[in-house]
Amino acid sequence: MRIAQLSFPQFPKILTSGLVAVATMTAISTAMLSNALAQIPAGLYEVQTNGQIFFRPADSTRNPVVVYNGRQRALAIVQYGGALYTAFDGGGIYRSPDGQNLGGGGSTTRVYPGSQTVRAMLVCQNAIFTAFSGGGIYRSTDGQNLGGGSSTRVYSGNQLVSNMQCRRDSVITSFSGGGVYESPDGNNLGGGGRTVRLNP
User: Is this prediction's pTM over 0.90?
Assistant: First the structure.
């Protein structure tokens, strides 16, 4: 399942869609979970202007709950492998298997402890792709070590990502230099291999 990420000025409730954009998001819906192992409850996660993240259950008889109340701001939230991944502006990325404690605590684990911030996160090709402020992009199939370790570095250039999309199971990556590339296998996101450039 792919989850939309949009900028704060666009605050309507956002349902699952085929695209994942860069940077901040306001709300994601988990009402259409496709993973039978998912423990994330159905409902809506909303990022407030003060940085808090609320979960509003799909069951209207249940009250909204705060799932993050820290000082950092969420830059991206995606669902992958039955867990919720939240990237913060302080650099950390956390994996919550139950949709609670998005910034740590409970069953939540930190899957990226570095200081770089996230430019984009994308779920595509049964993997999670993470683009960092230092220019690198990593692909993880197990949802762990998003900035290295068991993850594969699929872009090592110095341009920054301005947008990432999953289109017909290909990864479409737009870079700060203006290039837009399509990778059918999730490798060489900035060109080379089977990757093709989509613009002149």
Answer: no
